[in-house]
Amino acid sequence: MRNEITISELAKLMDVSVHQIRYFEEKGLLQPAYTDDNQYRMYSMNEIYQLAHILLLRKLGLPVQAVKESMTGFGPDQVRQMLQTSMENTHAEILRLQQLELFIGKVLQEHRDFGQEIEAYRVKRREAVNLRRWFGLSSQNVLEARQLAGQAGPGLNLFEADIHYVFEGEGPAVLCTEAAEGASLLLPAGDYLSFQFPAAHEDELEQRMEQFSSYAADRTLHLTGPLVLIEKSYLSLFSQDRLHYELLQRIGTV
């Protein structure tokens, strides 16, 4: 009775595909112990351990060429450094996935809130928010693609950021993004009048802002500080023909 196993038995044992084993052979990482009279590749315990080594290194994120180099020429110090690098890369990936989890949770929560509050005026208690001024719009308050591209800087995740259009007077809006540091504008904590709505065209925004001001005037609400229009473009995942906005302004005391 033979002691070696075929390539299909090896694949089943190691929970990989035959194609993967053949690929490792093509790259010079693994060779059968011998080929029998029927041209079957046969593998012994040595090849099982060798394949286990290859799969471990691949799991650590090493490309095939680096796996080959490590198996033929790495000493203990190089292996230790390789594992340390893999640990650091794994930690960075964990942080990335945690941030992604927070963002997905934010989108789902924003969508739930938007569905509950759409086309409804509400008073919200908000914590202070730090904003970084990005750039001012033209006098027509219309954002153009070239203007956006010309002002873009490193670290701006435009597709997941809340874009704040801040109207501090009669002039054009200033585009801002939330900032953990380097803030140049503070939206203080307090009660804010809020109105969430979808819009298919930018010309709807001015009409909505006028309605917002009229609503506050009719109810003798004393609004203070800048009027803020928040664009939540990621919510358009749920309705791709419209952008989603929230109007905010703090309610002051007379």
Automatic annotation (TrEMBL):
Annotated source species: Paenibacillus graminis
Pfam families in UniProt: MerR_1
Top-level taxonomic group: Bacteria
Protein name as catalogued: Transcriptional regulator
GO molecular function, one term: DNA binding
Domain HTH merR-type per the UniProt entry, residue ranges: 4-73
Gene3D superfamilies: 1.10.1660.10
Cited InterPro entries: DNA-bd_dom_put_sf, MerR-type_HTH_dom, MerR_fam
Keywords annotated in UniProt: DNA-binding, Repressor, Transcription, Transcription regulation
